[in-house]
Amino acid sequence: MATSATTATVLRSVLHRVKQTAERSSRSSDQIRVVVVSKTKPVSLLREVYDAGHRCFGENYVQEFLEKSPQKLETGRYDGGKERDSGVRNLAMVETVDDEKVV
């Protein structure tokens, strides 16, 4: 598993490449949201990314979202499931709803 220093270095590298790509496309990197996909990743690794300053995470499964949410990680994707009325904390937004019963 990566160390905190390695995780922070990888994150900085990705954000730098996004900035370079944005500049080549005549866009501001502020217009681009980098979503760290937390699917199947352990909370310890996500905590390292969070501690390195990143705040936008994406999760596909409600069960994992509910497990990670109390860890005070901001998460940006909720795909539905049985726990729809469970009082999810730290949910900044829902980008995709794949089933009408969720809304």
* H/E element sequence: HEHEH
**CATH evolutionary superfamily:** Alanine racemase
Structural class: mainly alpha
CATH class, please?
A: Alpha Beta
Please give the domain count.
1
- Report the radius of gyration as a whole number of Å: 15 Å
**Helical residue percent?**
25-40%
Q: Using DSSP, what is the number of strands?
A: 2
Q: Treating each run of at least 4 consecutive H or I residues as one helix, how many helices?
A: 3
Overall average residue pLDDT: 77
The main pleated sheet reads as: 2 strands, parallel
Strand content: under 5%
Corresponding CATH architecture: Alpha-Beta Barrel
Could you tell me the CATH topology label: TIM Barrel
Order of strands in the sheet with most strands: 1-2
- For the termini, the CA-CA separation is 37 Å
Q: Which spans have pLDDT < 50 for at least 5 consecutive residues?
A: none
Morphology call: flat
Protein name: YggS family pyridoxal phosphate-dependent enzyme
Organism: Tagetes erecta (African marigold)
InterPro entries: PLP-binding_barrel, PyrdxlP_homeostasis
GO molecular function, one term: pyridoxal phosphate binding
